Amino acid sequence: QLSYTLSRCNDTTSGNSPFEGGTAATDPYDERYDYGPCLTGRTHSLRASAIYQLPFTSNAFVSGWQVSGIVQTRSGNALLVTQPSGISRSRPDVVPGEDLIVNDWKGTCTASGCNYLNTAGFVRVPVSATTNATLRPGTYIHDMARGPGELNAHTTFAKSFSLRGATRIQVRADIFNVLNRANYNNPQTAINNANFGRITGASGSRTFQFGARLSPYSSCPSILRLTNPRRFFPWRSWPLLSPWNLAFRNRRASSATGAVAPRNRSSSTTCTASVCPFAWMSSSRSTIFLGTMTS
């Protein structure tokens, strides 16, 4: 299975509250100044997944194994570079002609981090000596620089065994970040921070997980199985449901029209001239006819 998403998201503040990443407008009298790509948006996203049954059948140990994998890659999100000021989210100026992202930034990585943003491409906007507010808006727009992209690959090896009857147990081994690839975090974007422009963190390394999953057998032919369906369907007598006539019958009782409820999954569904149940679900005590159509 393969899916690709091309998205475009613009807003004035990403999130509806501080808990969701939302912040106040830089200039409450000109909200268009903050308008730009969402800080959480990803322009490109590609996802591929597959399941493969291994063809080995020479013995019980090697037969029945299943391999599945998921690969996902995403482009980076927009970066909001800020400078200290008496106004929230003040942005600096951009130096014309300077690249904002370091060329071959991965080559600058050391044990302490990587130089991602070109600090020479940013300059602070002058501030007022009285209010510490910027004297004018900065020229940086938060689509001028984006963070690094991501690539994740996970795989699973699984095998199922029969225990008793139709009860089965599946043993599985999951490998997360199977390529052991470092997905770098976004760089520090506060211009007054000592690590401004540097990436100081990345995602975790390859991880293994082992587990088992028990699948008990259920004779119910549907996902939902109810002992007393009358409790869960109080609307069975609503007139708005006519002519669908949602009916509840005891599995041993026959209806007034002569239609007998089926006793198990192999029983044939009885259909009369006036009532034809087209969907049903059995439990230990009752049979539910969902949407019996009345002619």
Keywords:
single chain; 295 residues; mainly beta; six-stranded antiparallel beta sheet; three-stranded antiparallel beta sheet; 1 helix; 17 strands; disordered C terminus
Task: Write structural notes for this entry.
The chain is mainly β and 295 residues long. It has one helix at 229-232; strands at 2-6, 10-11, 36-37, 44-53, 65-74, 93-94, 114-115, 122-123, 150-162, 168-176, 198-199, 207-215, 247-250, 275-276, 280-282, 286-289, 293-294. It has a six-stranded antiparallel beta sheet with strand order 1-4-5-9-10-12, with no helix packed on it. A three-stranded antiparallel beta sheet has the order 13-16-15, with no helix packed on it. A two-stranded antiparallel sheet has the order 2-3.
Give the arrangement of secondary structure elements.
Elements: E1 2-6, E2 10-11, E3 36-37, E4 44-53, E5 65-74, E6 93-94, E7 114-115, E8 122-123, E9 150-162, E10 168-176, E11 198-199, E12 207-215, H1 229-232, E13 247-250, E14 275-276, E15 280-282, E16 286-289, E17 293-294
Antiparallel strand pairs: 1-4, 2-3, 4-5, 5-9, 6-8, 7-11, 9-10, 10-12, 13-16, 14-17, 15-16
